[in-house]
């Protein structure tokens, strides 16, 4: 009986010692506090500004048979992540801006756009979109071509003025809502800029004769005189999309 009691006491003491032993093992805990995850930014500015942005491109007192530089803007990614550039044109409008005598003499009508092809991609009653071609580019050429305010052969062209007016047909017209830069994959890194420039060609009666742009059924319907004092307006929409 006495031996059994001693054995039980010994086992109990060992159990207590084992428990005490586990409780006495070294340990250390550290806490990393205040962890933060922050989103990057993608922000495009045009000449250092955000919407609303007033008109930046123009060509005044244009004459048939001439080419005109319409001006340039600086597109800058002021965000913190790279972005792919997109370029769209929208809201084509041609205004009559009153009727001068040569317009009336050639058959222009107030409030009516004289359209020889039946295709009309612009609003308004003016005829200028039927007689001009619009081009635009990113200046990326070598040497002076990289910053001369003109769309040169080695710049990144999205659209040349073409051989016919922009409202001649669905084939040759400006595509509204279409991303002209989609196939170019132009990536603007954070802080990087690109120069975007425009150009306009005003076609003369003789040039458009060969394309049929001023004729309908062999009869001359539209003349340069009908575009006197008219304007052609367009909106440019620039964007950045997160680069892959």
Structural class: alpha+beta
Estimate the global geometry from the Cα principal axes: elongated
The major sheet is characterized as:
5 strands, antiparallel
In DSSP terms (H or I, runs of 4 or more residues), the helix count works out at 3
Give the strand line-up of the largest sheet: 1-2-7-4-5
Distance between the termini: 83 Å
- Element order, helices and strands? HEEEHEEEEHEEE
Mean pLDDT: 90
Structure characterization notes:
The chain has helices at residues 2-23, 101-105, 205-211, and strands at residues 44-46, 67-77, 83-95, 132-138, 156-159, 187-188, 193-202, 215-216, 219-220, 231-242. The protein has 244 residues and is of the alpha+beta class. It has one domain. It has a 5-stranded antiparallel sheet with strand order 1-2-7-4-5, with no helix packed on it.
How is this fold's topology laid out?
Blueprint lengths: L1 H22 L20 E3 L20 E11 L5 E13 L5 H5 L26 E7 L17 E4 L27 E2 L4 E10 L2 H7 L3 E2 L2 E2 L10 E12 L2
Antiparallel strand pairs: 1-2, 2-7, 3-6, 3-10, 4-5, 4-7, 8-9
Brief descriptors of the model:
single chain, 244 residues, alpha+beta, five-stranded antiparallel β-sheet, three-stranded antiparallel β-sheet, 14% helix, 27% strand
Briefly characterize the structure.
The protein is of the alpha+beta class and 244 residues long.
């Amino acid at each position: 009986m006495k031996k059994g009691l001693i054995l039980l006491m010994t086992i109990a003491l060992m159990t207590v010692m084992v428990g005490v032993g586990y409780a006495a093992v070294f340990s250390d805990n550290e806490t990393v506090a205040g962890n933060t995850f922050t989103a990057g930014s993608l922000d495009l500015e045009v000449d250092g500004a955000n919407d609303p942005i007033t008109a930046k491109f123009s060509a005044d007192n244009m004459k048939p048979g001439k080419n005109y530089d319409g001006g340039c803007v600086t597109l800058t990614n002021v965000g913190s992540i790279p972005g792919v550039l997109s370029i769209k044109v929208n809201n084509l409008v041609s205004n009559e801006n009153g009727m001068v005598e040569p317009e009336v003499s050639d058959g222009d009508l107030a409030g009516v756009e004289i359209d020889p092809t039946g295709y009309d991609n612009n609003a308004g009653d003016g005829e200028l979109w039927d007689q001009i071609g619009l081009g635009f580019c990113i200046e990326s050429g070598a040497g002076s071509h990289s910053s001369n305010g003109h769309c040169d052969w080695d710049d990144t062209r999205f659209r040349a003025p073409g051989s016919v007016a922009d409202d001649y047909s669905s084939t040759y017209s400006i595509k509204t809502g279409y991303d002209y830069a989609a196939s170019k994959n132009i990536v603007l890194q954070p802080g990087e800029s690109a120069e975007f420039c425009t150009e306009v060609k005003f076609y003369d009666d003789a040039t458009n004769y060969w394309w049929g742009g001023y004729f309908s059924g062999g009869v001359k319907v539209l003349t340069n005189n009908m575009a006197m004092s008219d304007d052609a307006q367009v909106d440019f929409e620039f964007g950045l999309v997160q680069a892959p």
